[in-house]
Each structure stands twice: as C-alpha cells, then as structure tokens.
Amino acid sequence: MSCPVLHVKSLADPELESFLQRLSARGEPAGDSGAEVEAQVRAILADVRERGDQALLERTRQFDAPDMEAPFSVSQEELARAAASISVEERSIITEAAAHIRAFHEAQKDQSWFITREDGSILGQKVEPVDRAGLYVPGGKGGDTPLISSMLMGAIPAQVAGVREIAVVTPPRSDGTLNPYMLAAAYLLDINEVYRVGGPWAVAALAWGTREIRPVDVIAGPGNIFVTTAKKLVQGKVGIDMIAGPSEILVLADDGANSEWVAADLLSQAEHDKLASAVFVTDSAVLAGRVAAALERRVAGLPREDIARAALEHWSAIVHVPNLSLGVELANRIAPEHMEVCTAQPWNLLPTIRHAGAVFLGHYAPEPVGDYYAGPNHVLPTLGTARHSSALSVQTFCKRTSIVATSPAFTRGFAASIARLARMEGLEAHARSVELRA
Fold first, then answer.
1. Cα within 13 Å of Cα(40), Cβ side
2. What's the DSSP call for residue 120?
3. I want to staple 51 with a disulfide (CB 3.0 to 4.6 A). Which of 31, 43, 55, 190 is the partner?
4. DSSP state of 143
5. In this structure, are residues 305 and 299 in contact, taking their beta carbons and an 8 Å threshold?
6. Strands 398-405 and 239-240, bridge-based pairing
7. Which one is predicted more confidently, 32 or 37?
8. Strand (E) positions, 2-160?
9. CA separation (Å) from 249 to 38, 311, 318, 377?
10. Cβ neighbours of residue 152 under 8 Å, at least 6 residues apart?
11. Is the pLDDT reported for residue 368 higher than 80?
C-alpha cells in the first residue's frame, strides 16, 4: 500500500494524532541540520553584502553554471528572441493564462479612503505600491521544467498593485542561459529586468543590492529550504510574501466522487517533492478503498514516480471519518495549502471551512486548474500557516499610510485628555506639544 489508510472516529484517535504531529513537523530540518542550514545561509548573505557581484558569480559557477560570466542581466534582445522562438499557440496560452490571473487580481485592489468628522477633521488611509519588487522564480530541474506559472503568479499582482520596477531572479542552466519559455513569459508580461542568478545569494542581492542588481522593497516567490531560509533572515530589511514549505493537498469527498479523479488530484501534489503531503478524507469506506487502489495504479509509471511514492508513504494518508462534519474539522486543523471539496453540495460546506490556502469546490475544479489558469494566486500558505496567512496577492506589494488632518476644534477640545494620557505614560514633551495648541 503506497498510502496508509486510517479509520478514525474522532480527532482524538491516537493513530490520527500521531500522523498529524508528524505532518506539522514536515519540512523542518531534523536535529542540528536546521541550525546548519541557517549558518550556511547567514554566511552567504554576509558574503554577498561584502563582495557583491563577485560573490554572486563565484557561487553561481559553483552550484549552477561552471562557465558563467557577468553580467547577470538578460538583454531586451534575448527576451524578444525567446518570445519569437516559441510557437504562436504557446504564446497564446501564456497570454490567456495571464489575462485570467490579471482579472482576478484586479478585483483585489484596495482603494485609499477618507472620513470627515463634523468638526472638520479628515482621517484616512492612503494605499500605495512599493517602489521596487523582487521576484524569485525557481529554476525547475536545472531549467528543464521552467516554472512559467510562478513568473505569472508573482509578476501580475505586483503589476496590478502599480509597482514601478520588478526585478526577476532565477537560476541559470548549466550553460549559463535561461529556458526560453521563462524568458518568453517575462517578455509577454513586459518585464525587462531579469537576472541569471538564483539561490540564497540571489535573495541577498535583492535585499542589499550589488553593483548590478539594485535592492528591492519586497521579495516574493517560492524556493528550496536555502532560499526560504534566506527570505526569513532578510525579512525586516525587506518585506517578504511568506515562509513557504512543501506542497500539500487535502481532498474531502463523499460517496459520489470519482475515485480515479480523486487519486489523480492527490498525485498532482505528491509528485512535487518527497516532502509533499496528499491527504484524502471521506465518509465512505468503499470510496476510501477505491482511491487507495487507484493511487497504486496511477502512481506506477509516472515520470516522478519515486518522488510521488515517497510523499504518499511518509506524509500522506487516506482518512475514513464517520461524517463530513468531522472531515471539515480535520481539514481546519490541518489548514492545508489546497483543499478540494468533491461532494454533492460543496457550497454547503464552504461556510464551515475556516483554514485553507485555497478551496476548490466541485468535481470539475481540480487543483491544477488553480495552479495555472483560473486566476487566483497559487503561491499559498503551507504547513498549517493558512490559519493566519493568506495567498500572495496585490496587497503583498502595497503599503498603507494613515492620514491625520485633525481640525483646530478637535485638537483644542481633546487637548487636556491627550495631555493626561501622555503624562500617564511619563511623556511630558508629548503633553506639552498638544497643550501649546489648546
């Protein structure tokens, strides 16, 4: 059996509790390796701060492209050639996907707002984009599997927010070039600042800047444990989207679900990496058995079969529950990155689903539709952080400034109260500043 089956009556079931505890620790380096990773990344960040482009070049040669030469930037001519090198159909698909993503994110835009009090005071909030954003786009198996969708999902909300400058960093292939599909996507998005550099040293360059790569205000985009650790360490110097972990999906289904479809959806995440998690929750013991059998059939022969099997065996489960209400409780506890609801009345369950990065309702809304084409962002909170975090969005690239224009009547009328509060805190200069205007 490639995926363990748990028959539980409550969330307190010891076997389920053991699985959930292991799941919550997924992605955390074991033993001293976490400290070791952080130490390595701190050294890299310090080196890039001190030596700039030379440090970037040395590490790029060491880990990605042995014969890499500066500059790291990709010229406008290269971007245009890449776009021309792919087929008309492929350009059309990228453009169409981008249009869906842009339409969704346009609806996310916040507006500045103001209120006026009777005394003439004006208070409000001004929403502004950051000046400059950095996007980290993973290379994808040495550039052989270009993550076009990650380019779209990072760049488009930044553009919708109104960010004036967007810098993309992505690891080069072994010959120092970038995959033409990646460059074509940048060209079609009208992004003109792309750098052939990845890893935690690229994050350092975006945070502190080098001679060639100017610093940014916000860094967004997924990466491996070293990239993620780098983002964590530079947070504060710059804003970041989130600390992301391995991919995950939870499918909740009743006896009307298609077992082959459910298995295919679970595998769509299990194939990401060996730490990925695919959890199936159902109130049907018959369906649980069918999905287990379908998983065993469908995982065989996948190009990434070894990866998917490891994810299924170690971090996944089929959970049979007595009713769908308990299934939703379990989903809320896990707070999955992706949650599919494959039931007869999925909309009826939506109000009870509190914690998930994205929810896919119905039998015709598989997770890959959201990954690529529907429009919502696929950069989502993982490892239970959907309990307090949200998807990458337009808001990731915006900041809010409070506006205070109080009238003479307001300041004079409340001066004594304000001064009293200030003195309660021991701040005499605060008190006198207001009293001068009374």
1. 14
2. S
3. 55
4. G
5. yes
6. unpaired
7. 37
8. 5-7, 113-116, 122-129, 132-136
9. 28, 11, 12, 15
10. 94, 97, 98, 101, 185, 189
11. yes
Planar angle of CA 360, 366, 371, nearest 5 degrees: 85
Looking at residue 146, its pLDDT comes to 86
- Give the tokens for residue 185: 């996507």
The yes/no answer on whether domain 5-22+245-387 falls in CATH 3.40.50.1980 is yes
Amino acid at 263: A
What pTM value is reported for the model? 0.94
Round to the nearest angstrom and report the end-to-end CA distance of the chain: 78
Alpha helices per DSSP H over 25-87: 33-51, 53-63, 76-85
- Quick one: average pLDDT of 400-424? 97
Q: 208 with 363: CB under 8 angstroms?
A: no
Strands 194-196 vs 248-253: parallel, antiparallel or unpaired:
unpaired
User: How far out from the chain centre does Cα 279 lie?
Assistant: 20
Of the chain, the percentage scoring pLDDT greater than 70 comes to 97
Backbone dihedral region for residue 345 (phi beyond 0: left; psi -120 to 50: alpha; all else: beta):
beta
Give the pair of three-digit tokens for residue 303: 């190009």
Domain 5-22+245-387 and domain 52-240 have a common topology: yes
With b for 16 or more beta-carbon neighbours within 10 A and e for fewer, the 226-237 pattern comes to bbbbbbebbeee
Query: In 3-state terms, what secondary structure has residue 80?
Result: helix
- Domain 52-240 classified CATH 3.30.70.100? no
Q: What is the mean pLDDT of residues 378-406?
A: 96
- Other CB atoms within 10 Å distance of the CB of residue 197: 27
Q: What positions carry a catalytic annotation? A: 337-338
Q: Where are the domains of the chain?
A: 5-22+245-387, 52-240, 406-435
* Band of residue 31 on the pLDDT scale cut at 50, 70, 90: low
Q: Is residue 115 scored above 60 in pLDDT?
A: yes
- In this structure, are residues 267 and 301 in contact, taking their beta carbons and an 8 Å threshold? no
Q: Is the dihedral of CA 240, 249, 225, 227 positive or negative?
A: negative
List pLDDT tens digits, range 156-213: 999 999 999 999 999 999 999 999 999 999 999 999 999 999 999 999 999 999 999 9
- CB proximity list for 336: less than 8 A, separation 6 or greater: 248, 249, 250, 277, 279, 356, 357, 386
Structure tokens at 356: 């998930």
Is residue 96 within 8 Å of 181, Cβ to Cβ? no
One-letter amino acid for residue 404 of the chain: V
